[in-house]
Every structure is written in C-alpha cells, then in structure tokens.
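for the writeup, i need someone to sanity check this before i put it in the appendix. the sequnce is what the collaborator sent (i think, or maybe the updated version? ugh). structure was predicted straight from it, no edits. if anything looks off just tell me and ill rerun, i have time this weekend
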Amino acid sequence: MPFETTIAAFATALADRAAPPPAATRGRLAAPDARRFSVYRNNVAVGLIGALEARFPVSRRIVGDDVFRAMARAFASARKPRSPVMIAYGQDFPEFAADFLASPEAAELNCLVDVTRDVARLENAWVEAYHAGDAAVATVDDLGDLGPDQLAGARIEFHPAARFLRSAGSPPPPVLEIQVSNSSGSSPQLMLTTRTLRLRK
C-alpha cells in the first residue's frame, strides 16, 4: 500500500471513533490493535481540546471547566484542523459554542449564549490581531504631508491586525469589561485599537 494511502487511512480512522484501526497498523501480535490505536485518538482529542482552552480562557471561566470541555470535545469531534498551524484552529468555535449552549439539552445554560459567544469572538479576534502581519501605520503627520493633489488618490486601509466585532445581544453584554477583568497582561482594548489604519498613497 502506498505510504500516502496509509497516512490517509490512519488520519481518517483517528477522526472517527467508531472506525476500526487501519489494517496497516499493527500491534505486538502483528494484528490491528484497537486498544493501542485508541491512545492515538485520545492524544488527538486532548491536543485539540487543549488548543481551544488556550485560545478561549475567559470563555472557559464563564461556562466552567466541565461545560467548556464538553463543548471543546464536541467541537474537536466535528471540526478537525484545516491547517497544520494550530494557531488557526478554533476560528469558528464562538458560533459553535453559542449553538451548543442554546441547545435544548443545555437549557440551564441558555442565558450564557450571548456573553459566551461575544467573549469568544473577542478572544479569537485578539489571537488573530496578535499574530497578524506587521505593516506601517498612518500617523497624523502622514496625513498632514499629503498635498491637495494627493488627497483625491489617497486611500486609507485597515491594518492587518484590525478586527471589528458586533454583538447580537440585546442589550449587548459588556464584553470588553468581562475580558479585561478575567485576563492578565495587556488590555485587549489597547491591543485591538492601536495599529488599526495605514495609509496607501
């Protein structure tokens, strides 16, 4: 069997808990070993859940460890990484978490839907902004240096780190205050509002 086929079968079996171990993987008895293969499945799940815990620490505090891990486990089961760069994993977790908390099975948690979704969006935006590419920033002096003949052709574009968030809650939850009061280090407000515009002449 070609190596690429073996790897594809291995990855497919890792993603499906009901699938048997790939025929090409063998244990000590030279036969597929479901017990040993389950160790790999568990490692994948633990790694993905850990990545979500690291990306959404305040959301985790809002719903509690047990609920968050249940959400993260369900997300990891349904949404596998699309990139080998793990920093990109979990971009659609905020909407998934809101749907999870809004389900009839989680009726006692329905009141946390808006705040958890919006805080998770902010946490996701913070990660994206932090890892965004660097670019020159337009200053007041840059704008002042533009002559009348340059203004018509000048364009201001958003910095790669700029992110816009809109709350769907009514009234909207105080997301920034919740984030700041549950975080350490730099204020997300500062991180998300500096370096927002750059000028293209």
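The two ends are 57 Å apart (CA to CA). The beta strands are 155-158, 197-200.
thx in advance!!
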